[in-house]
């Protein structure tokens, strides 16, 4: 059966497995970039805790870089899926070509702006005199290779929209395996320290990018990168940005949260609490990346069937995706509540960090079980092209609720106030999302 035709005809459960499992593996592999960085950097002799804090300071910047990859990447993938569902292959190929150019421009701008503003930005993001050095060493290398990051991450979404989720998975797998091999060599064997960790990440992202470009030029892709489609066209740019603005805004919001959080942590808990949050973020990422994988896998299924007006298949896809997502986050909840000390010591065994981190981990991720449904529901609106609602629901958890809580709660509960902001925001956003989602789904006819 034709790869695109099967989106509208094969059983939804089978499609979700075919598309989401590779995407989940791919996203888990993608999470390893940051998690492996933190594990190896956190275990550098003598400087591990301070270096881990420094890398934690750069997290908002890493999030912003990923945001631009999502703006173009997810916007492109959704636009392509909908047009393929409508039978407009040539227009989908035009969008892919425009996305390629947009990602190049984005990567170059990030490199230039990042290198020029690095130190004041890191200071504003919560760096101290001790941790600034390590933060600069790490993020400088990341900025230099940012074009590989946004290009690989952005175009990988389009491979799934092209109907080839396994290739998308292998793309991330290649990069993550290479990163895991290079990290200890660069950090411990070549004694490059924090810079070595960043260099391993950049080299791995470069290889992933080459793999993707080969797929869209010489591989068996339905859509091809053609020079004639590199000329930017207003209607395609608007189409990409209109849909991609929701995950972009969510990621930017996440970076704002990280900045506010880092400063609150520094004020109420010192550098050790920032190191703890760096670990907590890595742990949360391990369990959230599968949810993003389910979202990516379901995106072309929902988008295609919505474009083809097969609404019962749309509903079934969302329902089954929500069940799978909830199962994953419940497992994550059990892990962080039962063995928090063990989780923290994987990154660093400093007694104070283990104590602060374990307490923060259990509180901050206490409402993890409701996050799966909230994320899938927001993705539903994104998949069908309702960018404004998708953006609202995404911002609800990351900005509208979380930022005020991060500002207000520490005033009364000090460091615990920072940790409490997470679960309160999670449960309130899930309740509001449920109301909006069920109302919209019932209207599908």
Automatic annotation (TrEMBL):
Signal peptide from the UniProt entry: none
Gene Ontology annotations for the cellular component aspect, listed alphabetically: plasma membrane
Keyword annotations: Antibiotic resistance, Cell membrane, Membrane, Transmembrane, Transmembrane helix, Transport
Primary site of residence: membrane
Organism superkingdom: Bacteria
Cell location: Cell membrane
GO MF: antiporter activity; xenobiotic transmembrane transporter activity
GO BP, one annotated term: response to antibiotic
Pfam families, per the entry: MatE (PF01554)
TM segment ranges: 12-33, 53-74, 95-118, 138-155, 167-190, 196-216, 236-260, 272-292, 323-343, 363-381, 393-413, 419-438
Membrane topology reported for the UniProt record: Multi-pass membrane protein
Cross-referenced NCBIfam families: matE (TIGR00797)
Family statement drawn from the similarity comment of this UniProt entry: Belongs to the multi antimicrobial extrusion (MATE) (TC 2.A.66.1) family. MepA subfamily.
Name of this protein: Multidrug export protein MepA
Organism from which the protein derives: Clostridium manihotivorum
């Amino acid at each position: 059966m034709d790869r695109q035709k099967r989106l509208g005809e094969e059983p939804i459960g089978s499609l979700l497995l075919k598309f989401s499992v590779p995407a989940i593996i791919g996203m888990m592999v993608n999470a390893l970039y940051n998690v492996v960085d933190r594990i190896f950097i956190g275990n550098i002799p003598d400087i591990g805790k301070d270096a881990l804090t420094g890398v934690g300071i750069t997290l908002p910047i890493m999030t912003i870089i990923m945001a631009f990859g999502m703006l173009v990447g997810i916007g492109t993938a959704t636009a392509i899926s909908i047009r393929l569902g409508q039978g407009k292959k040539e227009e989908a190929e035009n969008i892919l070509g425009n996305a390629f150019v947009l990602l190049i421009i984005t990567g170059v701008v990030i490199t230039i702006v990042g290198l020029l503003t690095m130190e004041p930005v890191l200071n504003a993001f919560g760096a101290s005199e001790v941790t600034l050095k390590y933060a600069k060493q790490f993020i400088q290398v990341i900025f230099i290779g940012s074009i590989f990051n946004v290009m690989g991450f952005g175009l990988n979404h389009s491979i799934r929209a092209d109907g080839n989720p396994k290739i998308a998975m292998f793309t991330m797998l290649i990069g993550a395996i290479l990163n895991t091999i290079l990290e200890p060599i660069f950090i411990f064997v070549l004694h490059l320290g924090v810079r070595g960790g960043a260099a391993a990440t950049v080299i791995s992202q470069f290889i992933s990018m080459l793999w993707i470009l080969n797929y869209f030029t010489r591989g068996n892709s339905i859509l091809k990168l053609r020079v004639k489609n590199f000329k930017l066209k207003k209607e395609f740019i608007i189409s990409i940005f209109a849909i991609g603005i929701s995950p972009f805004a969510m990621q930017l919001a996440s970076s704002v949260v990280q900045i506010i959080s880092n400063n609150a942590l520094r004020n109420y808990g010192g550098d050790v609490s920032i190191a703890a949050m760096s670990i907590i973020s890595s742990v949360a990422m391990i369990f959230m990346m599968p949810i993003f994988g389910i979202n990516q896998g379901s995106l072309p299924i929902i988008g295609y069937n919505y474009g083809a007006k097969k609404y019962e298949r749309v509903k079934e896809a969302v329902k089954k995706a929500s069940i799978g997502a909830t199962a994953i986050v419940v497992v994550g909840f059990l892990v962080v509540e039962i063995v928090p000390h063990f989780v923290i010591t994987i990154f660093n065994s400093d007694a104070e960090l283990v104590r602060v981190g374990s307490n923060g981990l259990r509180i901050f991720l206490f409402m993890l079980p409701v996050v799966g449904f909230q994320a899938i529901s927001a993705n539903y609106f994104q998949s069908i092209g309702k960018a404004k609602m998708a953006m609202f629901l995404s911002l609800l958890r990351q900005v509208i609720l979380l930022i005020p809580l991060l500002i207000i709660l520490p005033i009364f509960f000090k460091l615990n106030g920072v940790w409490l902001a997470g679960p309160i925001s999670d449960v309130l956003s899930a309740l509001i999302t449920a109301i909006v989602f069920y109302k919209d789904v019932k209207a599908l006819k």
